[in-house]
DNA sequence: CAAAGATTAGGGTAAAACCCTGATGACAAA
DNA sequence: TTTGTCATCAGGGTTTTACCCTAATCTTTG
């Protein structure tokens, strides 16, 4: 009998941890070696336990599981990370991929899919579906590239636009003239290929990477 | 030994159903009599099984658990409904209360709280915390009352404003003149006590009851 | 029928967004 | 050093949008 796959679980919902714990127990070849409800504890425990797989949620009260994934891959690359979340959003999916996660599972999937995904990432495989890979590529093309084409100042202005500030208010906030802000706004619209300020706001508002 | 509390579970995440099933099994006095992943099946099963308690999520792919609660209370009032959701939002909390739910639990709470809440609602008690009741009253005062003061047309216009349409576009959509729309917008702002169109949009956007 | 309120609309002003051009300064390649 | 590129800044002028007022219909209800 091969040694069991050592798994770390992190989710802010006790009921999800309970479900995962029971299902992993029942699988036989999977062993839960650590369990936590907050991101701040994840990195330390990964270093302590050196699990084969870390199953992480995304939105925690005290932080973000994808950021935790990035840290894990930086300091314990031998631990595979599987993102397991309720949020089926391209932003998170693409970010998880970029952070080195071996897979991204939505909580709506069946439990045998979760179990099998843990086994696969423990073997060093990835579990992204072709559809997910397509979505990641499309996101990079449609959002990340255009976003990188913006200058620091333009991104700053776009964030303030997304907060529904007028150009006048943005100008006050940044201590520059109204005309300057108008120029930045026009540049943002041009670079993103958007017709109106309104479209720019809509574009920005579903880009979670802009929020912080 | 008293007869067990008969419980129906509905949640779109298999992992949550699994966790609840195991925890209820372990409690001893709680019996899961039905389990489902979609709202459309809830009402039929409640009628069939006549459970003591229905534990419902809120956002399902095919509908809304709070709406299901309303239907249950209309046709099987003896079944207590406990909302169990990840969304800790005043809109949902107040809607659940209005729909006759006996309690509103956020998924972040400890499992013993969930178990005890099921026992309590089975005995006919409510599980709203004083803080939750305060939030419900504040919501009614701050949102529901002002919203009810709007006419049908004004609510319609507010929805379109929240979709970031300009007054001109709203006028086209409703086949009325720009001037008419401007009047409605002004009325909305007056009734809600808001300074600007922008504030009205912000007000509307976090009112989930306006979205559909 | 009379009063109240909902829906419609127009006139006029202020503000915001949007188009163009252009100056300055930093930095890197020729 | 010079020259080209680009980020940042800014103004002139136009169009669009929002906002203020008043007021005519139409519906509903006491």
Short description:
Chain A is α/β, with parallel strands linked by helices and 212 residues long. The first copy, chain A, has helices at 14-27, 42-49, 65-75, 90-98, 111-122, 130-148, 152-162, 167-174, 178-192, 197-205; strands at residues 5-10, 30-36, 53-56, 59-60, 63-64, 80-85, 103-106.
Please give a structural write-up.
The structure is a homodimer of 212-residue chains. Chain A is α/β, with parallel strands linked by helices and 212 residues long. Chain A folds into 2 domains: 5-131, Response regulator (Rossmann fold), CATH 3.40.50; 149-210, Arc Repressor Mutant, subunit A, CATH 1.10.10. In chain A, 55% of the residues lie in helices and 15% in strands. The first copy, chain A, has 10 helices and 7 strands. In chain A, the strands form 2 sheets. Chain A has a 5-stranded parallel sheet, with helices on both faces. In chain A, helix 7 (152-162) crosses helix 9 (178-192) and helix 8 (167-174) packs across helix 9. The longest helix of chain A has 19 residues, at 130-148. At the A-B interface, helix 1 and helix 10 of A face helix 1 and helix 10 of B. Chain A binds a DNA duplex (30 and 30 nucleotides) through residues 151-154, 166-168, 176-180, 182-187, 189, 196-197.
Question: What brief labels describe this structure?
Answer:
Rossmann fold; 212 residues; Arc Repressor Mutant, subunit A; homodimer; alpha/beta; 2 domains; two-stranded antiparallel ribbon
């Amino acid at each position: 009998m091969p040694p069991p796959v050592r798994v770390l679980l992190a989710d802010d919902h006790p009921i999800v941890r309970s479900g995962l714990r029971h299902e992993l127990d029942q699988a036989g070849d999977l062993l839960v070696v650590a369990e936590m409800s907050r991101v701040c504890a994840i990195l330390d425990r990964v270093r302590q336990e050196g699990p084969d797989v870390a199953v992480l949620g995304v939105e925690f009260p005290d932080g973000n599981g994808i950021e935790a994934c990035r840290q894990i891959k930086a300091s314990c690359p031998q631990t595979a990370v599987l993102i397991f979340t309720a949020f089926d959003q391209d932003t998170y999916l693409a970010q998880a991929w970029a952070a080195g996660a071996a897979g991204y599972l939505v909580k709506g999937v069946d439990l045998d899919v979760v179990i099998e995904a843990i086994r696969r990432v423990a073997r060093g495989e990835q579990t992204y579906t072709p559809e997910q890979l397509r979505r990641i590529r499309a996101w990079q093309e449609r959002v990340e590239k255009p976003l990188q084409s913006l200058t620091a100042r333009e991104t700053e202005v776009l964030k303030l636009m997304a907060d529904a500030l007028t150009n006048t208010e943005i100008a006050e906030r940044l201590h520059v003239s109204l005309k300057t802000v108008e120029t930045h706004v026009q540049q943002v619209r041009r670079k993103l290929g958007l017709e109106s300020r309104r479209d720019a706001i809509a574009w920005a508002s579903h880009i979670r990477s802009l929020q912080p």
